[in-house]
Amino acid sequence: MSHATRLMAGLILVLVPTIQFGGYFLLTSLIDRDSGYMANALRQNFFRAGHAHAGVITLLSLVCQPFVDATRLSPAWRWFVRIGVPVSGTLISAGFFFSTCRPPRPSRTEPSLSSTSARWAWPSAS
């Protein structure tokens, strides 16, 4: 196992408690009836899916690290893969979370592609 693999495995293992803290946030929001979490089914589904995907892809990126050593990629591509897999888990999960970020309306039933945060990525959505 290379030094880069051990370094990235250590950094990825630091990310796991942050995902666990997010799960704790979901659990406390579920228990607290005043949080408004239960009033919005879309938010429930997207927050739950976001944390599930973050956890699975982060652990998958931990498993992928030793396999990068076995490839015949150049060192630059190896670092791209090492960093790209955990970052993809973060960005995919961020898509779930930020798609519900609009001024709070409990009646929202579909993701907001026309939100300000998504206009730069998908200009035709506005």
How does this structure look, described?
It contains three helices and no strands. It has 126 residues and is mostly helical. It has one domain (8-125). Helix 1 packs antiparallel against helix 2, helix 1 packs parallel to helix 3 (75-98) and helix 2 packs antiparallel against helix 3 (75-98). The model has no long low-confidence stretch (mean pLDDT 80).
Topology diagram in text:
Layout: H1 3-31, H2 41-69, H3 75-98
Helix pairs in contact: 1-2, 1-3, 2-3
End-to-end Cα distance, whole Å, is: 48 Å
Largest sheet: none
Number of helices: 3
Q: Helical content, roughly?
A: 55-70%
Question: How many structural domains does the protein architecture include?
Answer: 1
Structural class: mainly alpha
Radius of gyration from the CA trace? 18 Å
Mean pLDDT: 80
Order of helices and strands: HHH
Specify the overall morphology: elongated
As residue ranges, the low-confidence spans are none
Question: Percent of residues in beta strands?
Answer: under 5%
